[in-house]
Specification:
Helices cover about 35% and strands about 15% of the residues. It has eleven helices and 13 strands. It has helices at about 35-40, 55-65, 80-90, 105-110, 130-140, 160-170, 225-235, 245-255, 255-280, 300-305, 335-345, and strands spanning about 20, 70-75, 95-100, 115-120, 145, 175-180, 200-205, 220-225, 285, 290-295, 310, 315, 325-330. A seven-stranded mixed β-sheet has the order 2-8-7-6-5-3-4, with helices on both faces. Strands 9-10-13-12 form a four-stranded antiparallel β-sheet, with helices on one face.
Length: about 350
């Protein structure tokens, strides 16, 4: 558990009566029934140690992603793999976007590295463009951390720019970490997994948390063609770090293709509706391509909504943002309507 340490993330609904949680970007349908059934059936084996090599899960991930099993490392959530990556690599210099997910900088801080930040601008819609390559040329970091789609902006990195970043990092001997945890719930985004074999500098982060509503299970995995790096990362985590329940849940989740497609259909439609509603209220809203929206609104909105038992994510602790910036998850239509009514009542 955390001890006297702030947790700068969404999903902490345990200190108060929260009936609707829009602060965590998990699947609006919850957890697939097949996953819950797999967890239930695996309870009979909890007296045994879990498979330390996650054999069945690795095989299922290999088939799902179309990559060799040797490219896969499983972890106790995506966060564990971020910290293991930073611990294994220990770069002296690194680069990341701002705003972006805070755990990259926190993982680097444990090794004494403070990343250089490429500032994304509201005026440019928080989109990443080719000027980022000039930034990398000037800074020459040993590692680059990207999030596609970016959290909290929801912006996708265009395929052409991804290719240029990939070529640049390979040519210059720079490690490239790309977080694709939200990609399966995104519109128009493309994974770099097909380029792993020819780019050993590339590491991709994936998780079951968002797509399959499995935040409480804690299960993620990394994809990389560099066995030395994966070996060092494995040494940075404890043995049996992925529980038997999580492994069974992961195998079952990868068979839930219809569930994932149903989620995408709902998310894309409801995201557009939410964006239109927020803009009608006069807020600036990022043109997100995934299952959450970043918007600029009145200060104090989080507190006002908590009084109505609704949680949203304040983004005041994101580098490059500040007070008055918020992120909301895309949820079920009836829940989204309640949130919009609550925001309107708070104005």
């Amino acid at each position: 558990m955390l001890y006297q340490t702030k947790n700068p993330h969404g999903g902490d609904i345990y200190d108060g009566e929260i009936s609707l949680d829009f602060s965590a970007n998990t699947n609006p349908f919850g957890t697939p029934q097949g996953v819950l059934q797999a967890i239930s059936e695996s309870l009979k084996d909890v007296h045994r140690y879990p498979d330390p090599y996650c054999r069945k899960l690795v095989q299922a991930i290999s088939q799902f992603e179309g990559v060799p099993q040797s490219y896969i490392l499983c972890g106790n959530g995506a966060a564990e793999l971020i910290y293991a990556y930073c611990d294994a690599l220990r770069p002296e210099t690194a680069a990341e976007l701002a705003p972006t997910f805070s755990e990259y900088a926190l993982g680097l801080a444990r090794t004494g590295c403070v990343p250089k930040r490429y500032i994304l601008s509201k005026e440019n819609g928080f989109r990443l463009d080719e000027s980022f390559l000039s930034f990398l040329e000037a800074e020459r970091p040993q590692a680059v951390f990207l999030c596609n789609p970016n959290n909290p902006t929801g912006q996708i990195i265009e395929r052409e720019l991804q290719g240029k970043i990939l070529s640049f990092t390979k040519e210059k001997g720079i490690r490239l970490f790309v977080d694709e945890c939200f990609l399966d719930l995104s519109e128009g985004g493309e994974s770099l997994k097909n380029f792993l074999g020819e780019n050993p500098q590339l590491f991709l982060l994936k998780a079951f948390t968002k797509s399959y509503g499995m935040a409480g299970i804690r299960l993620g995995y990394g994809l990389c063609a560099d066995p030395v790096l994966l070996g060092k990362m494995a040494q940075a985590v404890q043995p049996w770090n992925v529980s038997s329940l999580a492994q069974a849940a992961g195998v079952a989740a990868l068979g839930e293709g219809a569930f994932l497609e149903k989620t995408r259909t709902l998310v894309f439609a409801q995201r557009r509706w939410l964006k239109a509603q927020l803009e009608e209220m006069g807020f600036w809203v990022s043109d997100s391509k995934t299952n959450y929206l970043l918007f600029e609104g009145p200060q104090g909105l989080c507190s006002a909504l908590r009084k109505q038992h609704i949680a949203i994510r304040s983004c005041d602790n994101y580098q490059g943002l500040g007070s008055g910036w918020y992120r909301i998850a895309v949820r079920l239509p009836e829940e989204n309507r309640i949130l919009m009514d609550a925001i309107q009542a708070s104005l």
